[in-house]
């Protein structure tokens, strides 16, 4: 029988739970043409949430364009991906694609060809020199198409922070913002993982995307909801788990979406019919073993003060890390040094800094660290 728990892919139908309030809020933004920016640590469920809302909202009149920026390395690739996604999503038939391209990208004169899989693929190529001069034409493509067809368009850009790796990121951001801010029929949803980079892009006053839209800091799915979800998923597959054990699964991984699903899956594999305490213990060991290599590597790459800082966190100290007795106890140097350590660990994505509180970003790394690195 197939496991009822899903992880490693975005979930939107099977395996999707809760997020009722987030769905309502994002949907309202989409319908009211308010740009949204979604920020959260890795694997909490940003992509899944956007996919879910996109599926619920799209109609003949409302088109949703989805672009993943993970593999886009430079500005030229971005324009190609952007133009082809917009054309593909807004024109139903293949022969319309070429027409749309010709009609709306007059100065650029792109070559559009149908790729190997005719249902899916569209290949656009253009001369970079003419794009450099006329990039506005591409950035305004969705607005033009929306006006011509009498529709509205929502453009979703996943892993948006990746544009920071382009050659001239500041210039590129200015280009995007200065065109997009005039759009009346197109709404943008920008989201991405590396929390410190996303925050930098949207919260800093000096940045082009400052106040571009509503910032949604995605929260974790609640414990009560996880317990309900876990017990129901076991029941669907004719196995059973007590609420207490379901609670233990969620609390072990601190309600982190991906890990709740992964640990539940491992418990499900272990369990015959009824989940036992032993099933849970073995599943946790298994989970940590799977990630051990990665955690070892991350740990080896720490400086001694960084390592000591994590030891303090693992001891449960999450506030006042720059107080004198903590600095002395964990040999963290000076309070200026503590700031430096924190910054480096945030950049390495090992910790996150909330309001007055510092935590491990990855709950499994924390578990592993406590088990293996504490003397
Ligand atoms: N609403 C949800 N209900 C149940 N599980 C979820 C939900 N959202 C996310 N998950 C679980 O978390 C995993 C990661 O979700 P998703 O890829 O959407 O997160 P993300 O924040 O976009 O991650 P990344 O930072 O890697 O881009 C999914 O594979 C799934 O197992
Ligand atoms: Mg994602």
Distance between the termini: 42 Å
> What general outline do the C-alpha atoms trace?
globular
Q: Hey, roughly how much beta strand do the residues contain?
A: 5-15%
By secondary-structure content and strand pairing, the structural class works out as alpha/beta
What level of helicity do the residues show?
Answer: 40-55%
Strand count = 9
Discrete helix count: 16
Largest sheet, spatial ordering of strands: 2-5-6-1-7
SSE order, one letter for each helix or strand? HEHEHHEEHHEHEHEHHHHHHHEEH
Stretches where pLDDT is under 50 for at least 5 consecutive residues are: none
**Which molecules other than protein and nucleic acid are bound?**
adenosine-5'-triphosphate, magnesium ion
CATH architecture classification name of the largest domain: 3-Layer(aba) Sandwich
In CATH, what is the class of the largest domain?
Alpha Beta
The total number of structural domains is 3
Radius of gyration: 24 Å
Write the layout of secondary structure elements.
Layout lengths: L19 H12 L4 E4 L6 H12 L4 E7 L6 H16 L3 H11 L6 E4 L7 E4 L2 H12 L1 H9 L2 E7 L10 H12 L5 E7 L2 H9 L10 E4 L5 H14 L6 H10 L4 H14 L6 H24 L3 H11 L9 H7 L4 H13 L3 E4 L2 E4 L2 H11 L2
Parallel strand pairs: 1-6, 1-7, 2-5, 5-6
Antiparallel strand pairs: 3-4, 8-9
Bound molecules: adenosine-5'-triphosphate and magnesium ion.
Description:
This protein is α/β, with parallel strands linked by helices and 375 residues long. It has 3 domains: 20-217, 3-Layer(aba) Sandwich (Rossmann fold); 223-297, Orthogonal Bundle (Helicase, Ruva Protein, domain 3), CATH 1.10.8; 302-373, Orthogonal Bundle (Arc Repressor Mutant, subunit A), CATH 1.10.10.10. The chain has 16 helices and 9 strands. The chain has helices at residues 20-31, 46-57, 75-90, 94-104, 128-139, 141-149, 169-180, 195-203, 223-236, 243-252, 257-270, 277-300, 304-314, 324-330, 335-347, 363-373; strands spanning 36-39, 62-68, 111-114, 122-125, 152-158, 186-192, 214-217, 351-354, 357-360. The two termini are 42 Å apart. Residues 6-11, 15-19, 40, 42-48, 193, 257-258, 261 line the site of adenosine-5'-triphosphate.
